[in-house]
Every structure is written in C-alpha cells, then in structure tokens.
Amino acid sequence: MDTAQKCYMCERQATSREHVPPLCLFPEMKDTKGINFRKDLITVPSCDLHNSKKSDDDEFLMLSFSGLIKNNPVGSFHQLTKANRALRRKNKDFLEKEILRNHKYGKIQTTDGKFRIISLGNPNVKRLSSCLKHIAYGLFYHEFKERFDGEIRMILEFIEYSDDYFQTLKKFLKRKCELENELNLDLKGSNPEVFYYQFHKPDEFGLIGLKMVFYGTAEAYFSFMGKDSKEPFNLGLKLMADGFNTVIELGEDKFEFNKKTPANNV
Ligand SMILES: [Zn+2]
C-alpha cells in the first residue's frame, strides 16, 4: 500500500485500510442467498491505533442499528441473521449492559394487525456518537481527500432526546436537509438499502453538513466546523443555544426553541 498516506483520523502513518461504515453493517452473501449488499464499499487509510481498537465498536454499532424497529427489510433481516448470531455469542446481560440500558421487551402492532416483540430501553448515545463520529471522519476523508481538522457536531434522528431543545433541533435539521435536498444534491453509497449519505455545500459560515442514513430510515446529521470556519451560528442559533426562547422559520414551518412552559416561567 501507499506508505506515504496518513491516517484518516490522525497524523500517524497509515498501516491498513478501514471500512466506513464498518463492514459488519453490510449483510454477507451467505445470508442473502446471492444478493450483493457489499458493492464498492468505502475504505480509508488508517493507523494501528484507529483501526485495531475499533472491532468492538463495529459490532456495537451493528447491534444498535440493526435493532431499530423502523428499519427497512434489509435492516430487519440483518438483525435476524448476523446480529442475532453475534448476540448469541455474548453473555445474557450484554444487551442490557452494552446496547440498551433498562432493557425490557414490549409489543407493537404492525400495519398488518400482527403483534411484534420489540426491545425497549435507553440506547448508549455516548458510544453511538463516538462510533458515528469516526464514520463522519472517514466519509470526509473519502469525499475531500484530506483529514478533517476541526469540530464535528451531530444529532441522531432516531433518538428520542429527553431534552426539548434537542428534540426541536432534530426536527429543524431534518427539515433543513429536506429543503436542501430539493437542490438535487447527490446521494452517495452503492448499497443504499444498507447505507447512503449526502454532503452539503459549505454554508455562509463555512460549515459543511452531512446526512447519513442507515437501513433506509435511521438518520444522523453532522456539521463539520473547520478551523477556518467563522463563529458558526447565526444570531438565532446563538440565542437558542443560550437558552432564549427563539422561533426560526424554515419554508412554511416554524420551530420554537426553549419554549416557555408554566413551570419554567416562574
Ligand atoms: Zn490514526
């Protein structure tokens, strides 16, 4: 391999290549009876540190994503095959300890009137965010052929945040992406049933947006704040972040942040 290349995450020399997203998210041919969901997978150069330590994280990510109930059939299928095999190799309390805290089973009624058993609990958002940040770095490297140097922020659409502010920010970012999509940005990813993504052009502050979609429905939004980008947010977003009640209009929708409730008005 090209020894001059540096790692996608740090300044060290690359010693191998790393899949972004991790290979284990993509179903194997032995499970899919010949359908290939591993076409043209993306790899980036990686140092020992940023490759070897990640295999646990890769599996964690696969188990977290394949278990989401809104997933498309490819995601559900992956849960029933590879994810279940991985879980059977673990201790009984692995799901509770590592993937979903306060885990319990629940029942939902599907559109065909049948009941389906689902897992409920609190996802490990901190670890999920860390895994997704690595993917964001990897995709940035792949897209722009250089390591991203700066700060990455993210919102995970499939998480129900307990904080009202994050819930509103989530809806706001989703709508913002939808409006920008009308500009016909490229969707990238050769196996869109498993994963696709979309980079947005830098905005007026130099921030670059990225949307990732796993198994058709699980969306994550990222914002890359490069070293050269300006103080990132406009006044409205600044007020929001400081806790002021702020209404932002986007298209025909209004998003109210830090809504006053009788309780916190006192
Ligand atoms: Zn590295």
Shape: globular
C-alpha Rg, in Å? 20 Å
Q: What is the average of the pLDDT values?
A: 83
Measured by DSSP, the beta-strand proportion falls in 25-35%
Oligomer: single chain
Q: What fraction, in percent, of the residue positions are helical?
A: 25-40%
Distinct small-molecule ligands in the complex: zinc ion
DSSP summary: helix tally: 9
Structural class call reads alpha+beta
SSE string: EHEHHHHEEHEHEEEEHEEH
Largest sheet: 5 strands, antiparallel
How is this structure best described in words?
- With 266 residues, the chain is of the alpha+beta class.
- It has 2 domains: 110 residues, no CATH class; 117 residues, no CATH class.
- The chain has 9 helices and 11 strands.
- The strands form 4 sheets. It has a 5-stranded antiparallel beta sheet with strand order 5-9-8-7-6, sandwiched between helices. Strands 1-2 form a two-stranded antiparallel sheet. A two-stranded antiparallel ribbon has the order 3-4.
- A hairpin with a 5-residue loop joins strand 3 and strand 4.
- Helix 3 packs across helix 4.
- The longest helix is centred in the middle third of the chain and has 20 residues.
- The radius of gyration is 20 Å and the shape is globular.
- The chain starts with 15 loop residues before the first strand and ends with a helix.
- The mean pLDDT is 83.
- The chain binds zinc ion.
